[in-house]
Amino acid sequence: MTRVVATGTFDIIHPGHLFYLEESRALGDELHVIVAREQNVRHKPKPIIPEDQRLAMVLGLKPVDHAVLGDLTDKFKPIREIQPDIITIGFNQRFAPESLETELKSQGLDIRVVRTGQFEDCEFCSSRRIIDRAMLLRGYVPSGDDQTP
Asked: Closest Cα to residue 57, out of 71, 67, 48?
């Protein structure tokens, strides 16, 4: 049995997330998803949706067999517990597969890392685009000095 792990924040589920999870699931027999803890999200704005709700949404998606929240202090702890054969990285996730494989090996983990393909661009295939659209429709006008990506 081939066990696959996908990771992400999954704040405001959209078609890009579903595509990533479907591609990840197609690589194996069982898909485990690690949902990022709010306090560990540092590379982008903090999630809007609380982590327990993001976890519940991911668990409800058809391609997902199992999902857990990431560990607060050791990002490799869930990986050691799940013991996957493959870890997938979405096309827009900031990890380099080779660097992640090297980091995993330094932890004694021999796991293949695969970058999934890119979902065709659509208007709302990004949490940021969904948030921006909602703010626009609700009358928010950015001040110009917002530092959010």
From this structure: 67
In a 3-state reduction of DSSP, which class is residue 101? helix
d(CA 62, CA 56): 12
Reading the block at residue 102, the tokens are 């090297």
Show the tokens assigned to 104.
């995993």
CA distance 67 to 77: 14
- Let me know if residue 48 belongs to a domain: yes
CATH classification at residue 102: 3.40.50.620
Q: How many structural domains are present in the chain?
A: 1
Q: pLDDT in tens for each of the 149 residues of the chain?
A: 999 999 999 999 999 999 999 999 999 999 999 999 998 988 777 899 999 999 999 999 999 999 999 999 999 999 999 999 999 999 888 878 889 999 999 999 999 999 998 887 777 777 778 888 888 888 886 555 444 43
pTM: 0.86
- At 30 the three-state DSSP class reads strand
